[in-house]
């Protein structure tokens, strides 16, 4: 009897200790970021109904992720890729970090040289930097550095595009990542094809060539697949080291160039899609397979119950040539696309699976911004106290995941830059915007115009209500101006006078 009681006490103690280890263990985190993926580029509906676009795309693994977690219907990023990625890694809003366009230019004037009226301010063309004193860059403590310092094995896989070429932020290893797979200052690959060595040509320098994947050259393995294989090998390393991992799985898909993934092309040819659109659809399905492969890896290695998966896109879907069709309709019912502060340029597909915390197969309508991920991920990792050199604008989404809402939350965007070529920039250049509750105000800086929309009633932003609700215009214009001033947000300058355009509240008097 005494022996039995002793063995029983040992069993209870060891079981309790094992459970305590599981409870206290930091969760693994996979942040799956897609490049240029629109809100409608999936078979998962993020609206209150299915659309023709949902029927066009085949993303069973996104459906699988949605069933295992929560789907956010009103998640936002910035309208251009690098600003979103800097907000994600720094927790700062675009108005504060001033990386308001992508980091490829040699000087700040390039994005406005073809405009006859405005010139861009001296924005942070060099992107994010962990080194103080880097010219035209945001000096910040990066998210992966904080995770690494707290025991995580940090992996960057795919597109980086945090800093300009030959600046500290161009190398993910300088930003707290212990492993970098294919990441550089490039915003897109020259090629997704192994037959073209992913853009690497012997003897020729190519800024957009994907580095470090030589073993896949000429194998017939599509870039999306090669990156996924390497990501799983990196997770193997973390497991051997007995460390929790943070995998920033940043696929180059579904960005240009629209190289068809031959594994999936027949489905879309049979559907009668145009050649560019069929190729685009294969990029989407290949991305989805990557997501599924990672989920399968977690299941195979008994990691699913202890791994958080976040799915997000970095900006709205690309709606111009070669996708064209009828210009700017690919994100319908949302208006416009990448580069615009209309909903099509900034509203993103977002899902979170957090076993034991998030209820499976649920929908969340709280609006959130990409800078909110910084404190959210740190809280998920158990880091509620942390120090950064930058001021954090993002707010943790964990309360929203547990059922709370905040209808007074404020989101702002600032794009004092030129994105479109020539003078046809009414939709994708020189804009600021603010959202609070169901209301959204857009400031067209070049036109000196304010537009007001109620997104609950008019998701397509077809009915400008500025003339009907002047008090609401004044209130939101004042709020946008206040936030821009608090964050030292920049405004473009008139070429003729060198003076900045007025703040939006000056137009709403």
CATH topology: Alkaline Phosphatase, subunit A
Percentage of β-strand residues: 15-25%
Q: Kindly provide the name of the CATH class.
A: Alpha Beta
Task: Give me the Rg, rounded.
Answer: 23 Å
Shape: globular
Q: What is the H level of CATH, i.e. the homologous superfamily?
A: Alkaline Phosphatase, subunit A
Q: Which CATH architecture?
A: 3-Layer(aba) Sandwich
Low-pLDDT residue intervals, each spanning 5 or more residues = 10-23
- Give the integer mean of the pLDDT values: 92
The class by helix and strand makeup works out as alpha/beta
How many strand segments?
17
Measured between the Cα atoms of the first and last residue, the distance is 87 Å
The major beta sheet can be summarized as:
9 strands, mixed
